[in-house]
Write a structure and sequence with these properties.
This protein has helices at about 25-30, 40, 60-65, 80-95, 130-135, 145-149, and strands at about 1-5, 35, 50-55, 70, 100, 115, 125, 140-145. The chain is α/β, with parallel strands linked by helices. Helix 4 crosses helix 5 (about 130-135). The radius of gyration is 14 Å and the shape is globular.
């Protein structure tokens, strides 16, 4: 089994209440080997939700307590992001999943790049909170951009 960001499968769980459906990824999901997860929902955040970004670092820094995830209104949502990452890891362990196809640039699922915390659309190198936790635990994370082409 493999995990996949639920928004990539047509599930309306992205921050804006929509999905980021990809025909290539949808074909993979139809194989039955993927379990859709939305770490932000698993952490207790609503859909739709105010945009959030990691401020002052990466998902690894959030897990280390060095920075926070803040929404565009200034509210600290770090606890929900960490909880969602932990719940996603729990699902991976329960199902034996060794791979995760992650929505690129997300503060949860971003793989390789996330937004810089200024809400200006600027990207920085680093992983989202869930991606960082999964990688720490030996799960291979693949960015959706590498699948979609």
């Amino acid at each position: 089994m493999k995990l996949i960001s639920a928004c990539l499968c047509g599930i309306n769980c992205a921050w804006n209440g929509k999905s980021k459906i990809s025909p290539k990824i949808l074909e993979l999901v139809k194989s039955g080997e993927f379990i859709p997860v939305c770490p932000e929902q698993l952490g207790g955040l609503s859909t739709p939700r105010i945009p959030q970004e990691i401020q002052g670092g990466s998902g690894e820094d959030v897990l280390a307590g060095k920075c926070k995830v803040i929404n565009k209104e200034g509210k600290d949502v770090t606890a929900q992001f960490v909880r969602g990452a932990e719940e996603t890891l729990k699902i991976a362990k329960l199902t034996g999943a060794k791979k995760f196809i992650a929505k690129s640039k997300s503060p949860s699922c971003g793989c390789g790049f996330t937004y810089d915390g200024t809400f200006s659309g600027t990207l920085i190198e680093g992983d989202g909170v869930t991606t960082a936790l999964l990688k720490r635990n030996g799960i291979k994370v693949i960015s959706s951009e590498n699948i979609e082409g």
